[in-house]
């Protein structure tokens, strides 16, 4: 993953409302949720939700599928896992996690 993409995704999640939307979709699982249900669960105006969903869509964290007149939103789990992996891949690479754990014991 490129650092620029990770920065954009983290910036999108840095807003309280967007983080609530994203966590709601992550909790919903692969089935996702219709936009109306997200709005009901979070109690935010449709225009506000639309704005925040657009930011999450642009960064790839969320996908949408149209079913007749309903928009289904889903967390994009592969993208989420890539971002989490990017953050954790080099954990303690310069410090050596094993030696820190041993010293703390």
TrEMBL record:
<dbReference type="InterPro" id="IPR036390">
    <property type="entry name" value="WH_DNA-bd_sf"/>
</dbReference>
<keyword id="KW-0238">DNA-binding</keyword>
<feature type="domain" description="HTH arsR-type">
    <location>
        <begin position="1"/>
        <end position="95"/>
    </location>
</feature>
<dbReference type="InterPro" id="IPR011991">
    <property type="entry name" value="ArsR-like_HTH"/>
</dbReference>
<dbReference type="InterPro" id="IPR036388">
    <property type="entry name" value="WH-like_DNA-bd_sf"/>
</dbReference>
<dbReference type="InterPro" id="IPR001845">
    <property type="entry name" value="HTH_ArsR_DNA-bd_dom"/>
</dbReference>
<dbReference type="GO" id="GO:0003700">
    <property type="term" value="F:DNA-binding transcription factor activity"/>
</dbReference>
<keyword id="KW-0804">Transcription</keyword>
<dbReference type="InterPro" id="IPR051011">
    <property type="entry name" value="Metal_resp_trans_reg"/>
</dbReference>
<keyword id="KW-0805">Transcription regulation</keyword>
<dbReference type="Pfam" id="PF12840">
    <property type="entry name" value="HTH_20"/>
</dbReference>
<dbReference type="GO" id="GO:0003677">
    <property type="term" value="F:DNA binding"/>
</dbReference>
<protein>
    <submittedName>
        <fullName>Helix-turn-helix transcriptional regulator</fullName>
    </submittedName>
</protein>
């Amino acid at each position: 993953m490129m650092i620029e993409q990770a920065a954009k995704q983290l910036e999108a999640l840095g807003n309280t409302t967007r983080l609530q939307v994203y966590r709601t979709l992550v909790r919903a699982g692969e089935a996702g949720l219709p936009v109306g249900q997200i709005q009901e669960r979070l109690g935010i105006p449709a225009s506000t939700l639309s704005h925040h969903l657009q930011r999450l869509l642009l960064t790839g964290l969320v996908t949408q599928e149209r079913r007749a007149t309903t928009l289904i939103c889903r967390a994009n789990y592969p993208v989420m896992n890539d971002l989490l992996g990017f953050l954790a891949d080099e954990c303690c690479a310069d410090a050596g996690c094993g030696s820190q754990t041993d010293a703390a014991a």
